[in-house]
Design goal:
The complex is a heterodimer of chains A (136) and B (148). With 136 residues, chain A is an alpha+beta fold. Helix content of chain A is 35%, strand content 20%. Chain A is built from three helices and four strands; from the N terminus they run H-E-E-H-E-E-H. Chain A has helices spanning 4-21, 49-63, 118-131, and strands at 26-31, 36-41, 98-103, 106-114. Chain A has a four-stranded antiparallel β-sheet with strand order 2-1-4-3. With 148 residues, chain B is α+β, with helices and mostly antiparallel strands. Chain B has four helices and four strands. Classes of the chains: A alpha+beta (136), B alpha+beta (148).
Chain lengths: 136, 148
């Protein structure tokens, strides 16, 4: 289960990695139902990154898949097409940078990163989850 | 003019959190926003209600937007003032600010040495009316921690 202690550990790992890279960013941690537990916007990170990081984490937590993969539900070439991925609600986003966090078989929450390029955001998510001993 | 950094924001939040947990005994959410009302950091303590994060952010936003504690603004929305002379209430505030205005006590602006507002702290989740314990007192602990 996601608690504040766990969220702080994830955030500290993420911020250290972002500082090493030199890209200020926002990191959001949400619980298994997509509700915000902790959110940090690093000095120098753009203002909207905080809200976008939260959106990415919400999407990853509620769908339990990386946020970029949600776009497949809106692809006409994929069976089951019909989901409105653009504006289904004000939170949903298909931008890469949100990752679900699993503790073994148990789903515990999600992380959302925004600030660098999409590849940087995704790499940071993966590194943080790896380093804290969880899996995506 | 001093800038409110993430490091300072976390120092405030940690102190307020410790006070809320160990002395007040109520889990709550604490948010710190910068001088333009933008979120710097938010923490939701274990077992705090899930909606408290958003309310804490809204309180902090309102405190920085009006450059005063939300406790003072809450008087404007007191229904007991309805029907009195104009100026005794400001019910028109409801729904303003794109829905972000929140005049529930618990948001306090942060000022620098020159009395310029550099941000605000907001807390939500602590019931009021239990002695001196309230959302405002948790926020106050955070503000005091800034000057330690």
């Amino acid at each position: 289960m996601m608690n504040l202690e766990m969220a702080k550990k994830l955030l500290q790992t993420g911020m250290k990695k972002a500082q090493e890279k030199g890209t200020p960013c926002s990191i959001a941690i949400v619980d298994e139902n997509g509700w915000l537990v902790a959110l940090h916007r690093m000095d120098g990170a753009a203002i909207p990154t905080a809200e976008i990081a939260r959106d990415k984490a919400w999407t990853a937590a509620t769908f339990r898949i990386p946020s970029a993969e949600v776009s497949q539900f809106g692809d006409p070439k994929v069976p089951g097409y019909g989901f409105n991925v653009q504006n289904w609600n004000e939170r949903l986003t298909t931008i890469a940078g949100g990752m679900p966090i699993w503790d073994g078989d148990r789903f515990i929450g999600a992380i959302g990163v925004c600030g660098g390029t999409l590849e940087e955001d995704v790499t940071l998510c993966k590194k943080v989850i790896e380093e804290t001993g969880q899996r995506t | 003019m001093k800038e409110l950094t993430l490091e300072l924001a976390l120092k405030m939040i940690e102190a307020a959190e410790r006070w809320a947990r160990d002395i007040a005994g109520f889990p709550c959410s604490i948010a710190v926003v910068g001088k333009s009302g933008t979120v710097i950091a938010v923490h939701r303590m274990d077992r705090a209600g899930m909606a408290t994060t958003d309310i804490a952010i809204e309180k902090a936003w309102t405190a920085v937007a009006f450059k005063m504690p939300t406790l003072m603004g809450s008087r404007w929305l007191d229904p007991r003032n309805l029907g009195k002379l104009m100026g005794d209430h400001a019910m028109g505030m409801i729904g303003r600010g794109k829905g972000r205005l929140c005049f529930i006590p618990g948001g306090i602006p942060i000022t620098d040495e020159e009395n310029e507002v550099i941000g605000a702290i907001g807390c939500s989740g602590v019931p009021s009316g239990v002695g001196d314990i309230s959302d405002t007192s948790v926020s106050q602990v955070g503000v005091i921690a800034l000057y330690e």
